[in-house]
Design brief:
With 341 residues, this protein is an alpha/beta fold. It has 10 helices and 8 strands. An 8-stranded mixed beta sheet has the order 1-2-4-3-5-6-7-8, sandwiched between helices. The chain is globular.
């Protein structure tokens, strides 16, 4: 599915000044916080990372609450329940979206304002029960910690979630989707692959929602070289984040980075649910994202490519950008289609 647009030969479309200012501030914070010795200055970056508390009082028709899975590794999730639906209908059944936030495996958290706003919007507009995961971050915790955290959340949902008093009875665990943006999109795919090793009793994964997933490789693609200067994403930043995330001594052809590259693990025989891959025309990572979609298709998986020609990386953070509403509608349609099967 491709949405119409007319991207010109430049690094980004005309963005509202407020959007461009916020993107510039975030880029500045990242660049200052990423040290040459592959450590990260969290104290400085947190000055720019506004956090939001959970709210038991509905905001925009959605309430939220936090639950700790393992305090020793700061593994917890924020649960979003759409009250405007659940309080007016007693027989309604809602899909469950397990959401992994982006940030190059290094930045941000489930309670960062941008993700809190976006997950609240997903819950209210789809509508769905959303479980937003706070996983361990690199470089303090490298691969495969993040994937292990994702699997542990699915196991918790399968085994323990019914014991949580606030967990809505309308949540249909047989209609569960793993989703994420950027690094979270990478996580969603890899968690779906690893979920094959689990024997879930209540939970059934029926879809993967990969929003501008963070993949890469040793080579430089055409979009990476053409879109130098695009907002938020630069090769210097992504190279640093891969060094922070991957096992020391690995290069960017590691299978966690280059899922269908020279060192890839064959997933032809692995049960991966239907996947949508969302791509932005002004995202330097778009060629890798398209290769991911093509790799899934070649392995015989059900996959759909959704393109927004004028979208920059992280567009969903900014409600003033029209592609955000398009994305909500496309995700809603995907969830409805997979739920109907």
């Amino acid at each position: 599915m491709a949405h119409t647009g007319n991207p010109r030969a430049r690094a980004s479309p005309d963005l509202p000044w407020k959007t461009r200012l916020l993107m510039s501030a975030l880029s500045f914070a990242v660049d200052v916080s990423c040290r040459r010795n592959i450590t990260f200055n969290r104290n400085f970056f947190n000055l720019f990372d506004i956090k939001c508390s959970a709210s038991n009082q509905p905001k925009n028709g959605v309430k939220s609450s936090d639950f700790v899975i393992d305090g020793s590794r700061n593994l917890w999730f924020r649960l979003y329940t759409p009250t405007n639906v659940t309080e007016t209908a007693t027989t309604i059944s809602l899909p469950v979206i397990v959401y992994f936030h982006g940030g190059g495996f290094v930045l941000l958290a489930a309670n960062s304002k941008g993700f809190d706003d976006y997950c609240r919007r997903l819950a209210g507009e789809i509508p769905a029960v959303v479980i937003s995961v706070n996983y361990r971050l690199a470089p303090e915790h490298r691969y495969p910690c993040q994937y292990e955290d994702g699997i542990d959340v699915l196991k918790f949902i399968d085994n323990e979630i019914s014991k949580i008093e606030d967990f809505p009875a309308c949540a249909d665990l047989k209609r569960c989707f793993v989703a994420g943006d950027s690094a979270g999109g990478n996580l969603a795919h890899n968690v779906a692959v690893r979920a094959n090793e689990c024997n879930f009793s209540k939970l059934k994964l029926i879809g993967v929602i990969a929003i501008q997933p963070f993949f890469g490789g040793e080579e430089r693609t055409e979009s990476e070289t053409r879109l130098v200067g695009a907002p938020l994403v630069s090769m210097e930043r992504t190279d640093w984040m891969w060094k922070a995330f991957l096992p020391e001594g690995s290069n960017r052809n590691h299978p966690a980075t280059n899922a269908f590259g020279p060192n890839a693990v064959d997933i032809s025989g692995v049960n991966i649910p239907a996947t949508i891959v969302v791509v932005g025309g002004f995202d330097p990572l778009q060629d890798w994202q398209k290769r991911h979609y093509e790799g899934l298709k070649k392995c015989g998986k059900e996959a759909y490519l959704i393109e927004y020609p004028n979208a920059v990386h992280g567009f969903y953070f900014f409600p003033e950008l029209p592609e955000g509403s398009l994305l909500i509608n496309d995700v809603k349609e995907f969830i409805q289609n997979q739920s109907a099967k």
